[in-house]
């Protein structure tokens, strides 16, 4: 998995280094004449290495996060400008081979270059907005979940937190403020669906902060693992969680009784083998539902959004997931990149619901048209 990740990172680095070098030649043809492709790649490689090794720099270095963010802005700018240039080239191709042949009119290269350069400022504005504004603007979404068998649980409020990615771009202070906001919503349960603890230096402190809020929710805090927790010292994270009253749902369920009616909260682990994802998911689900009463209202906590299908299959009333970050880039409320079956928002099958949160944070600090979120669900 890590080898695939590195291959994708370096493949993307090479591709967009070449594309940006070509784009730079179009924008400022007299600025760099020799070895521009090699120079851009070398600079990008140095920036990427600094970004990686900056994880090991002590947090006492106050402006570390700013240097990291500037590097991210540079990379995003290169990608957006390269994509803009690709669009320009496609348009030129279409005009040359389709329009020009029909309408015999010479191409005004000066006008074309002016239009291309005039787009640079708004593109950079979008990059800066997505890097410094939208990604920090956590919104609150609220949903009423209609159930045929809500009974005594009608009015129950479940808050949902996922994908905070505590670390360079999501501080302990921001985690604490987010939890304050969640507690102020007067929810009965806080469901946390993984990728919260994403920094070996901060993870134990982050667990302690989360643990302090257990009493702020009537029935406590429930947690399931994400994939990023596995990238760090899991032993330390588990020990810290065991020292709190947070209920870790690791392929098991927890039953709450109220006036003789049961609510079953269940959680599943993260399947790591993509080639056997569904086989592992089925094993985890069978363990999670094993002790769940048929008559109980069932809430499933899962990190990966593919578990929504499992939730429908096992007649889970509400499945809460994250992992996708909503694609991080969207337009008109819809994700631009569809890398998953369920990317963002609410999905229904009769009275069964599955939800994919865009997450409260992100390990890659950029969002546009896809703000971070916390969510509140009310059973009705």
Please give a structural write-up.
By secondary structure, the chain is of the alpha/beta class. Helix content is 41%, strand content 17%. Strands 1-14-2-3-4-5 form a six-stranded mixed sheet, with no helix packed on it. Strands 6-7-8-9-13-12 form a six-stranded mixed sheet. A two-stranded antiparallel sheet has the order 10-11. β10 and β11 form a beta hairpin. α3 packs antiparallel against α5. The chain is elongated. The mean pLDDT is 90.
Strand order of the largest sheet: 1-14-2-3-4-5
- Total beta strands: 14
Query: What is the helical fraction, as a range of percent?
Result: 40-55%
Task: Please identify the oligomeric state.
Answer: single chain
How many distinct helices? Answer: 10
Gyration radius (Cα, Å) is 24 Å
Sheet with the most strands, sense and barrel status: 6 strands, mixed
Head-to-tail CA distance between termini: 42 Å
The outline comes out as elongated
């Amino acid at each position: 998995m890590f080898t695939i990740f590195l291959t994708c990172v370096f493949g993307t680095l090479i591709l967009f280094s070449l594309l940006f070098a070509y784009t730079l030649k179009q924008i400022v043809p007299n600025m760099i004449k020799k070895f521009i492709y090699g120079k851009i790649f070398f600079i990008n490689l140095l920036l990427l290495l600094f970004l990686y090794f900056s994880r090991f720099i002590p947090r006492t270095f106050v402006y570390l996060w700013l240097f990291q963010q500037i590097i991210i802005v540079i990379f995003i700018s290169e990608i957006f400008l390269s994509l803009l240039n690709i669009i320009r080239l496609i348009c030129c191709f279409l005009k040359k081979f389709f329009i020009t042949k029909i309408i015999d009119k010479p191409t005004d290269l000066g006008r074309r270059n002016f239009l291309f350069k005039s787009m640079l400022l708004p593109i950079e504005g979008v990059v800066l907005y997505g890097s410094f504004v939208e990604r920090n603007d956590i919104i609150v979404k609220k949903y009423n979940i209609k159930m045929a068998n809500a009974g005594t649980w009608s009015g129950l409020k479940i808050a949902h937190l996922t994908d905070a990615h505590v670390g360079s771009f999501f501080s302990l202070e921001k985690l604490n403020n987010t939890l304050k906001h969640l507690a102020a919503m007067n929810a009965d349960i806080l469901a946390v669906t993984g990728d919260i603890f994403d920094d070996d230096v901060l993870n134990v402190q982050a667990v302690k902060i989360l643990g302090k809020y257990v009493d702020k929710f009537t029935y406590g805090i429930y947690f399931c693992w994400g994939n990023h927790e596995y990238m760090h010292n899991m032993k330390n994270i588990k020990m810290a969680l065991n020292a709190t009253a947070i209920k870790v749902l690791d392929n098991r369920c927890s039953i709450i009784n109220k006036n003789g009616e049961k609510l079953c909260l269940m959680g599943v682990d993260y399947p790591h083998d993509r080639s056997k994802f569904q086989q592992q998911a089925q094993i985890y689900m069978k363990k999670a539902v094993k002790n769940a009463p048929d008559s109980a209202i069932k809430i499933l906590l899962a990190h990966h959004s593919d578990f929504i299908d499992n939730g429908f299959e096992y007649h889970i009333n509400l499945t809460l997931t994250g992992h996708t970050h909503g694609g991080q880039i969207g337009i008109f409320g819809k994700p631009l990149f569809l890398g998953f079956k369920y990317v963002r928002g609410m999905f229904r099958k009769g009275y069964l619901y599955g939800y994919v949160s865009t997450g409260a944070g992100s390990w890659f600090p950029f969002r546009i048209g896809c703000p971070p979120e916390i969510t509140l669900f009310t059973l009705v």
